[in-house]
Amino acid sequence: MGIPTPPRESAPAYDELFHDHPVNGTPPSGSRSAPQYSAVPQDDVELESGQHNHASSSAASQQQPESLAQTIAGVFRPKPHVHCEQCDVQTAARERREAEKHCCAMVAVTFMVGFVCIMVLGIVVANAQIKMKKHMHD
């Protein structure tokens, strides 16, 4: 661990060393000569949920505020909700995402349980082989 010395020469540039390499035959993605990609529109319907309002919500805001007893009683009273087409699309998309998430989680759990079972089986087999070798030498 000596005293650091300044470099005598600078390293050559990457382009000077590898300009004729086959990988560099195609322009990099940030290059001006490369085709530029256009933005892909998002089709997730819940992103647009801020624009979705039912007419019943404006009527509820014009009423007088509820008392404490009415609020408590309202918890147990089911509130009617009229579903429009956009509500159905959002609900279907939400249910589809939840089903996909559940499916992925079940596959992951299956693989984890399988690996644990194989590991335990391997330990049992290895111990049995060690015991057999020990008894054969005795």
UniProtKB/TrEMBL annotation:
It comes from the Eukaryota. Residues 55-70 have a biased composition (Low complexity). Residues 26-36 have a biased composition (Polar residues). Residues 1-72 are annotated as: Disordered. The chain crosses the membrane at residues 105-126. Keywords: Membrane, Transmembrane, Transmembrane helix. This is Uncharacterized protein. It comes from Lojkania enalia.
